[in-house]
Amino acid sequence: MNKLISGALVLLILLCSTALFASEGDHGLPAGDEIAKRINARDTCVSFSKTLIMELIDRRGKKRLRETQAFCKYYGEEKRTVIFYKEPKNIKDTAFLTIDYAESGAADDQWLYLPALRKVRRISASHRGDYFLGTDFTYEDIKKETKVDINDYNQKTICEEVVDGHRCYVVEGVPVSDKIVKELGYSKARQWVDADIWITRKAVMWDVNGALLKTIQFSDIRKVQDIWTIHQMVAKNHKTEHITRFVFKDVDYKSEVKDDLFTEQALRRGL
Length: 271
Known about the structure:
Blueprint: H1 2-22, H2 32-41, E1 47-57, E2 63-75, E3 78-87, E4 95-100, E5 109-114, E6 119-123, H3 139-144, E7 153-163, E8 166-175, H4 178-184, E9 188-194, E10 200-206, E11 212-224, E12 227-237, E13 243-252, H5 264-269
């Protein structure tokens, strides 16, 4: 009887241990969905403004520079972002507006103002995998920054690795459906997420056919007004060998960002 009881206790302990580790990722690491939630829940802000310098480098090393001013504001869970181009002259006054709705499944609204045409063009949410104005970042990359849409991907933690001296969780995301694969342009994505501050330090994406597509490095991560902030993002397209470097300057989380910036009229009016 005692042996039977002892055996039952051992079995119970094993079952409890299995249940505990089943809620975690592989090798006892945090589950992918939990990491995604922590990425999205980290301290951010109500609004911000920043200067964004874009450097576009082709496979021959030829460089093009663009300077923009970006503004963002949260209305509860709804996020609005607008980007105004300041330099060079041939694309000056181009502007991009996106409204990311809080409701799950709600199609986001996106508009692009092209001064040469003097018109605002609405961008379909189904085109969110298109590349943003000649860069190696998609419209969805720009909109989400380093956040994760948990409705788009099934997340799985693979392992731990070190990136630039920082311990990171490697999380692999596979789109939940063929429709999402087509929309995003990715069949798979991996993120190297800092285990201390929950910011992505590296990301790799594969195209719809499963071929390696691009790598993004996030660096110069430091606090601005007590908020962890990425100051440089570099994306390399492995197919075209084209590189895009984003450098963020004059980041400000405290100055007022006016509501009327996030309108079609503001896109036409400019700064």
